[in-house]
């Protein structure tokens, strides 16, 4: 991945288009853009996260398309989901310092916001709290979506037949 060190104005515009950063003011966005290595460009075919590795970096795509893949028991990579701008990637490793449960591969050139645990510590307390709040909101949204899918599956699953 290449770090983005120029074009601050364009990078702030990308942050402005992603709901994850809506609660951040202009100064906070500028600090995120100027943070060393916090914005990167990833090319198609590049692996952002490798399954089973220990890495505590969180990513938020600002543009592009990525795919979540998991190696099955036969050792084959199985596509699980596609991720677009505004999703969060790597939150479990970021929060729990645990091995990655899947891989994430770039399908289309992507610009990503990248935040390591160390970079998080270097942010101002207010910006750090906003980032954590957004992360919590995204996780709640995912849980709600999964609960809905589970309830829909239970409604349409065949009922056991009684004799």
TrEMBL record:
InterPro entries: cNMP-bd_dom (IPR000595), cNMP-bd_dom_sf (IPR018490), Env_Response_Regulators (IPR050397), RmlC-like_jellyroll (IPR014710)
The Cyclic nucleotide-binding domain, residue ranges: 20-123
SUPFAM superfamilies assigned to the protein according to its UniProt record, in alphabetical order: cAMP-binding domain-like
Chain segments annotated as transmembrane: none
Pfam short name (any one): cNMP_binding
Protein name: Cyclic nucleotide-binding domain-containing protein
Lineage summary: Bacteria, Pseudomonadati, Pseudomonadota, Gammaproteobacteria, Oceanospirillales
